[in-house]
Amino acid sequence: MPIIDLALWDLERLTGAREQGIMKALDYIKGNLESREGDRLKFEATHDRPDFFSAEGLARAIKGVLGIEAGAPRAEVKAGDVQLIYGERIEERPYALMAIVRGLRLDDEAIAQMIQLQEKLHDTYGRDRRKIAIGFYDLAKIKPPIYYKRVSADDEYVPLGLDRPVKVREMYELTDKGRKYAGLIKREAPPALVDSSGQIMVIIPVLGSECCKVTASTRDVLIDVTGQDPAYISKVMSVLVYSLLERSDAKVVELVKTSGGVVDISPRLLAVRRSDVSALLGVEVGEEEYADLLRRARYDVEGERVVVPPYRINVLSWIDVAEDVAILKGYNKLPREPPPMSTAGRRHRVEASSWGARRALLSLGFYEVMNYVLSPAQLLGAFGLGYAEVLNPASERLNAVRSSLLPGLLDMASRAKRKEVRMFEVGDVFDGETKRAVAFVLAKDGATLTDGLAVLRALCVRLGARCEASNHKAPWCIEGRCAKISGDLSGIIGEVKPEILERIGLLKPTVAAELYL
After folding, report:
1. Cys-Cys link to 265, which of 38, 238, 457, 517 (CB 3.0-4.6 A)?
2. Model pLDDT, residue 386
3. Distance between CA 389 and CA 372 in Å, rounded?
4. Does 263 fall in a domain?
5. What is the pLDDT at residue 345?
6. Residue 298 located in a structural domain
7. Which has the minimum average pLDDT: 131-145, 180-194, 256-270, 321-335?
8. Which of 428, 409, 411 is nearest to 366 (CA)?
9. Cα–Cα distance between 30 and 64 in angstroms, integer?
10. Contacts of 482 (CB under 8 A, 6+ apart)
11. Domain residues for 359?
């Protein structure tokens, strides 16, 4: 989990609270105080609370716990005059959204917290800058409008940390960030933000420019977030904007005009019933106490609806709101009751059978493999099997839920460089319902159904199961060399068709079996 570095004196400045109150409030905040060295604190934040990735977000929560401020933070959000123009479509990062926070009071510690928030969001929600990239700029040093376009690797700018202009292609080698992130872009034509005077503000997502760096004298900060999903970008932008607002006197946010999308940092209304929260926590929460706890958790309450601040991107349902109520009420004040169970815990019979099958097959000279539950649809189709397709797969190879262990097991066997392959797998499959299956493959010169039946009988004996074989047909079996298993266990065993073996690259006679436990 992210470890956040903080200064106690900075938290005191942001909250107006004393050390004792701050330390007490941290006990009520989701996360853990990792360590303290003098005035420096190390706070372990949970991944679902990105608003705690810097001192500003923690200060906002501390003020709520201590009752210094209650309810959702207030901000004036309006359309600004600054415009972002898309010079061309950037395929790898098609969306760029911007906002301006005005009236900031910054110093070295505040800037360090901004950088920490930026990097923690890059590492977690940004997948190390692959999914999103974030930038901060001093608005006073920029001449609008701003252009989002590609630049040439031969163009020059002064990268952060350097004191002279260099070509973009030189930046890739001269800086740590260049060496680390240049592989994420088209190096010869990288995406960039360029103002109307022609100065390069940043090479996205690699490194910003010294020309518009935020310093202690900066009063108005321009924020940009680029990526592939405008809704996701808006969520990250909300975290950034509301963190900077904790250091703003004006509490003004201006949304930059752009044709690529609209930054949505508006609060959300969520239906939450007090009776449901009370039932979940196991204790009656009174109406006044309920409203007070929600406001101290920095929500607003409107009857049976809760106003969720935009930076709370982790709040997905009323359960998340109930968790905040429980945290602020105190878990020690909730009733402690043993679960209503009349029996002691023991291993489920399916798990016991699974371990029995593993031991039996290992003793017969087979070795175990483990494949993913998700499988290539093309592979399942080659065996004539039905399957559930994944509508939005993360990978083209993992686009179906496996309905059998055999395709993946045989695909794995085809990669084994041995004269004889003895391989098995135990795992779940889905063919309308979830089942636990055990499958084995025996591939060698001269392998026949008889060899497979010998293994099958030994497995059934070890499991104490009665198994019978009868003639059967299956789309992946050689006709007349296939059997259906019935009795205490059900399944199928047979010799795999040569055309299927050739297709997956397993060039040995192969017998395979799959049983449901």
Report:
1. 238
2. 87
3. 14
4. no
5. 75
6. yes
7. 256-270
8. 409
9. 13
10. 449, 471, 472, 473, 474, 492, 493, 494, 495
11. 349-516
- Please check whether residues 449 and 364 belong to one and the same domain: yes
Structure tokens at 190: 């990288």
DSSP 359-371: HHHHHTT-EE---
Q: What is the pLDDT of residues 121-174, one digit of tens each?
A: 999 999 999 999 999 999 999 999 999 999 999 999 999 999 999 999 999 999
DSSP type of residue 384 = T
Q: How far apart are the C-alpha atoms of 200 and 146, rounded to whole Å?
A: 10
What is the mean predicted confidence (pLDDT) over 214-231? Answer: 95
CB within 8 Å of 38: residues ≥ 6 apart: none
- Rounded Cα distance between 164 and 171, Å, is 11
User: Is residue 337 in a domain?
Assistant: no
Domain containing residue 48: CATH number: 3.30.56.10
**CA gap 398, 280 in Å, rounded:** 37
Beta bridge partners of 261: none
250 and 276 belong to one structural domain: no
Q: What is the pLDDT of residues 319-334, one digit of tens each?
A: 999 999 999 999 888 8
Taking Cα atoms as reference points, which of 428, 433, 416 lies closest to residue 510? 416
**DSSP annotation string for 283-343:** S---HHHHHHHHHHTT-EEETTEEEE-TT-TT--SHHHHHHHHHHHH-GGGS-----S-SS
Number of domains comprising the chain: 4
**What is this structure's pTM?**
0.70
DSSP-based three-state secondary structure for 38: coil
The answer to whether residue 13 is domain-embedded is yes
Using CA atoms, how far apart are residues 406 and 390, in angstroms rounded to an integer?
A: 20
